[in-house]
């Protein structure tokens, strides 16, 4: 069983966007044991799309298309495929209803071309779109199987993970169970992590261990195959235990979690509220925290104290601290954390101050970050970090370090 | 003149990395007027690479390869191409010397397989690698032209920008100038925008007009070609004027800008400071604003007023407003905007309150958003929005609407 992914969209060929969809789908297919031999990108052009289809049909069993399912004139993937394989396009009632609901909700008139999005290949399994309008679909012909997915990643990714993957497992009668698990690490580099567990990586093929570094984190993806799901899981458990023996102190969570989600869960579990004073991060920690549904149980609010004036008058930093040590100092971070904790009557205060860059601040080079933590019945502390990279890398990484430090303090 | 980009590397097909090289090269080619009709990705497999080459030779004039030029066993792009087109591989003296220099510099012994990297196709123009070892090359045969570039983006990008692009301009004797411009719109859907200007899209091919929807915004990319750059620009001006007549009220900026950047520039230009009170957006507006270097000139800080208690005690919303109208109300948005403006001594106050979801709040469905604006010498106002989508879509879209509303108010 081998697959090819065809992305349709002139914006890809013009270099306006990157084909992240092919990467996402390929990683999922690798997990479930389907070999991907080709990615193709073709523009919004029916003739060239048809030619790419013919090439793909001759060399691949499964062809997955992304893009070109929208309402506009240059969205023509569905129509081109329908014509090529001789399938009719029929309106899908569920899809049409959800498009109509969308327009009612936003109180905008639904234009005629939006109905086009509800058309599906006759006989296809329809994949619901929980984050947009155009549904996906899967259709098997005598020789090939076709899956059509929308182009925007925020629609495509959940559709493929939640529906497309299962349809493929069913349709292809994959009986071997594939279990995978992602272990997430923070505070260790990819090269170091790999060095620490190189004997494990080299000595076995089931489960496989695949390291990946992204956004300052390192993940290990473990994938085990076995006719019995139980057995596959226990293979994962065994290798996880061996990995933890070596690098467990950097581990923070499984699969799709994140540092902020783990922090939220910890605060919820311990019934603690948190308040935040943010200088260089400018609200990012609080924005991340409130991106989680239910945040109001552990968070009342905080202050973005970008100027020194706000640090003094609204959070309670002493003027002499700023005069003597400056805003980029451990003392300032400590007073911000204590001040915000008191002002917002929370159990925990956390603060972020420092030099995000591109310029130095008060003589401190960009990337100098202080995280302040104030906890009940303990003296407030500051943690100093040096974070490399651009202004926004420094800010985002500072927020992750803040979560990581607080998680450790709460152990 | 049309081109195809073939990326060679099994790590792309396994979903371990994204093919950013194709985007980078495509954007440069679009600028110099070479049409890219296909991207292909193929693994480190000589047979499949050869088949991809044959397909590319039949449909594309120029074939650009990335990847597979390194020292290891599975780097086989050069060897496969040499065999396929019947060209000899010869050692390039400059390349060999720079590889030897590299090993002297890092004080490591040069292994035999590293010499392989200095081999180039006989007769090719050699492209120096200023950030790595493997040189690139360009070779023209009777029918096709071939360019080989290394895979790592930090080697490939400068090589292509500094050497590859000029070689192509020379070799292809390109005299026509290409000008492009992106117009950015907010507050109108892609289908509606296209409907409004469909006659323009249909009636002309120079400039071309390409709509693209991303993150609640719609862009139109205009591309004009003419032997004279002046003329190409004036073609863009003409069609831009016609577009603006129809949908100008939704236009907010050109090319790579964003709503928050436009707002920042406007505040800077008018020398106005802003303070912010955020409930449902939880700090996102302030985080976005402070992602811009120089934000301190127009922003002192603000409050994340997630709980009602913080709204009353730290921003100055009247308790009776919350009792009577609730937190998801125009009155609350107005008092938040006025309150934060006064407390933080800024010229402008902006506020965000509402129901982000997934649950309704105070009987208001998810997506109900109120943006409050308080300006000097004007009565504060609130704007009510209904934003569809997930919790985080609602929050992110609310921030964009806030920028858009304030930009309009400041006109």
From TrEMBL, chains A, B:
<dbReference type="InterPro" id="IPR036653">
    <property type="entry name" value="CinA-like_C"/>
</dbReference>
<dbReference type="InterPro" id="IPR008135">
    <property type="entry name" value="Competence-induced_CinA"/>
</dbReference>
<comment type="similarity">
    <text>Belongs to the CinA family.</text>
</comment>
<dbReference type="Pfam" id="PF02464">
    <property type="entry name" value="CinA"/>
</dbReference>
<dbReference type="InterPro" id="IPR001453">
    <property type="entry name" value="MoaB/Mog_dom"/>
</dbReference>
<protein>
    <recommendedName>
        <fullName>Putative competence-damage inducible protein</fullName>
    </recommendedName>
</protein>
<dbReference type="InterPro" id="IPR041424">
    <property type="entry name" value="CinA_KH"/>
</dbReference>
<dbReference type="InterPro" id="IPR036425">
    <property type="entry name" value="MoaB/Mog-like_dom_sf"/>
</dbReference>
<dbReference type="Pfam" id="PF18146">
    <property type="entry name" value="CinA_KH"/>
</dbReference>
<dbReference type="InterPro" id="IPR050101">
    <property type="entry name" value="CinA"/>
</dbReference>
<dbReference type="Pfam" id="PF00994">
    <property type="entry name" value="MoCF_biosynth"/>
</dbReference>
<feature type="domain" description="MoaB/Mog">
    <location>
        <begin position="4"/>
        <end position="170"/>
    </location>
</feature>
<dbReference type="InterPro" id="IPR008136">
    <property type="entry name" value="CinA_C"/>
</dbReference>
């Amino acid at each position: 069983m081998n697959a090819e992914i065809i992305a349709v969209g002139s914006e890809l060929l013009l270099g306006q966007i990157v084909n992240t969809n092919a990467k996402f789908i390929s990683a999922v297919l690798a997990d479930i044991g389907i070999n991907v031999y080709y990615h193709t990108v073709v523009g919004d052009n029916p003739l060239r799309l048809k030619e790419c289809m013919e090439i793909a049909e001759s060399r691949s069993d499964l062809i997955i298309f992304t893009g070109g399912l929208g309402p506009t004139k240059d969205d023509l993937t569905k129509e081109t495929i329908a014509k090529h394989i001789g399938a009719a396009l029929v309106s899908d009632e569920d899809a049409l209803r959800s498009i109509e609901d969308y327009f009612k909700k936003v109180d905008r008139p639904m234009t005629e071309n939006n109905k086009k999005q509800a058309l599906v290949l006759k006989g296809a399994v329809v994949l619901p779109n929980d984050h947009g309008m155009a549904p996906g679909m899967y259709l098997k012909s005598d020789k090939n199987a076709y899956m059509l997915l929308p182009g925007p990643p925020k629609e495509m990714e959940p559709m493929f993970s939640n529906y497309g993957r299962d349809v493929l497992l069913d349709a292809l009668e994959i009986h071997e169970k594939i279990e995978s698990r992602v272990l997430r690490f923070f505070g260790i580099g990819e090269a170091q992590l790999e060095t620490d567990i190189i004997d494990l990586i080299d000595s076995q093929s089931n489960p496989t261990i695949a390291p990946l570094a992204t956004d300052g984190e390192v993940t290990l993806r473990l994938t085990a195959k076995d006719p019995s799901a139980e057995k596959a899981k226990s293979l994962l458990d065994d290798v996880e235990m061996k990995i933890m023996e070596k690098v467990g102190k950097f581990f923070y969570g499984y699969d799709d979690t994140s540092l902020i989600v783990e922090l939220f869960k910890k605060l919820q579990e311990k019934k603690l509220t948190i308040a935040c004073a943010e200088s260089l991060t400018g609200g990012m920690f609080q924005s991340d925290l409130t991106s989680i549904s239910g945040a109001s149980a552990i968070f009342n609010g905080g202050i973005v104290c970008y100027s020194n004036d706000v640090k003094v008058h609204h959070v309670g930093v002493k003027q002499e601290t700023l005069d003597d040590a400056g805003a980029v100092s451990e003392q300032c971070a400590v007073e911000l954390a204590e001040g915000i904790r008191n002002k917002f009557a929370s159990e925990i205060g956390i603060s972020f101050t420092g030099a995000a860059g591109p310029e130095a601040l008060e003589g401190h080079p960009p990337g100098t970050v202080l995280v302040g933590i104030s906890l009940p019945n303990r003296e407030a502390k500051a943690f100093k970090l040096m974070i490399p990279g651009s202004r926004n890398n420094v800010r985002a990484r500072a927020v992750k370090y803040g979560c990581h430090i607080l998680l450790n303090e709460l152990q």
